[in-house]
Design goal:
Layout: H1 16-19, E1 41-42, H2 44-52, H3 74-82, E2 85-86, E3 93-97, E4 113-118, E5 122-127, E6 132-136, E7 152-157, E8 161-166, E9 171-175, E10 191-196, E11 200-205, E12 210-214, E13 230-235, E14 239-244, E15 249-253, E16 269-274, E17 278-283, E18 288-292, E19 308-313, E20 317-322, E21 327-331, E22 347-351, E23 356-361
Antiparallel strand pairs: 1-2, 3-23, 4-5, 5-6, 7-8, 8-9, 10-11, 11-12, 13-14, 14-15, 16-17, 17-18, 19-20, 20-21, 22-23
Helix pairs in contact: 2-3
Amino acid sequence: MKTGLNHAVRVTVAALSIVLGLGTAVPAAAQCPGDVTGNGQVNGADLGLVLAAWASDGTDQPGSDVNEDGIVNGADLAYVLSAWGNCPADGIVRAWGRNDYGQCNIPADLGPCTAIAGDLFHTVALRTDGIVRAWGVNNYGQCNIPADLGPCIAVAGGFAHTVALRTDGIVRAWGVNDAGQCNIPTDLGPCIAIAGGHDHTIALRIDGIVRAWGYNYHGQCNIPADLGPCTAIAGGGYHTVALRTDGIVRAWGYNEYGQCNIPADLGPCIAVDGAYVHTVALRTDGIVRAWGYNYDGQCNIPADLGPCTAIAGGYYHTVALRTDGIVRAWGWNGFGQCNIPADLGPCIAIAGVGNHVIAITK
C-alpha cells in the first residue's frame, strides 16, 4: 500500500463568528475561558462540548459552563462565539517528515499562523492576518495563491489542489482540476468549513448542509439524503466524513478497508478527520478512535495517549493533540513523520497530511 496516492485531507474549523457577523474576534487573555478544551484555541471543539452539555449543571463536560452560572445554556454559547479564534500564542508553524519537495521547509517570512493544511507534497498555512501561503511541489499551481483571494479564515489541501474559505464565506480552489475539484458550484452559497479529498472538495454551508464535488467514482460526493445538518467535515482519499450536529459521525465513499463503517460504540464526537484509507474521530470525552486500514498500526490508539483536543489523519499515520498541548503520532514512520521533535513544545493545531506532519506552536 505504500505506493498509492495520498489521502489529501485536512479538516478545518471555520471562524464561525465571522460568518455569523460576530466579528473577527481574536480573544484576549481574559476571553480564554471560552477555550473549554484548553488547547489555546476557541473553536468547534469548544462549541461541540458546550452543545453536548446544554442545559446541564455544567459538570457533564468540564469547563462547558463558561460563565460559571451553574448551567450550560445560550449565555455560554454566545461567549464561545464571541471569543472565537486563537488565545495568545506565538503561532509558529513547524513541520517534519517527508521533505523531498521542501514541504517541511517553513518560509522564513511566514509569520504567525492560525491554521494549517497540506497534502503529500505541499503545505498550506493561514497567517493571523488572513493571508494564505503555500509551499512544496507546485506542478499544478497548487501553491500559487490567487492574487484576488483576499483574507481567509480556513484552508484545506487536496492531492494537488488547495482550498480556502474567505472571510465572507466564499470558497475558492486552485491547482489540478481534472475532475472538477476546483470548480466551485455556483449555488454553493456562504460556508463555514472546507475539506479536501484526493480529487474532490467538500464544503459545509452556513446552514449545516454538506456539499461535495470533483471525482466521484466511489460516491464520495453523493451526500446521504438523511445526513442532516452538520458541524464538521473531512475528506479521506476517496471517502468523505461528516459530523452531525448531534455528534454522530457519518462516512461514505470508498470502503474497502471499512473506513466508512462507523463503530457501533463510538458515541458522540466533536471532531473528525479522514486519512487515505482510515478515519479518525475525537469523542466528546477527549478519547481518540480510529478505524479502517490498520496494517501499520495507525488505528491502534496508544494506551497512554490520554484526552485530546484535536486529531489528524496522515497517509498511513495518525496524529493527536493532547489537552496539555503535546503532539503524539503513530503508524507508518518511513519518513520520521511520527518522530515528534524534542524541542516542539505545546501546540494549538495539527495536520497529518501525506507523509509529513504540521503543527502550530502555542
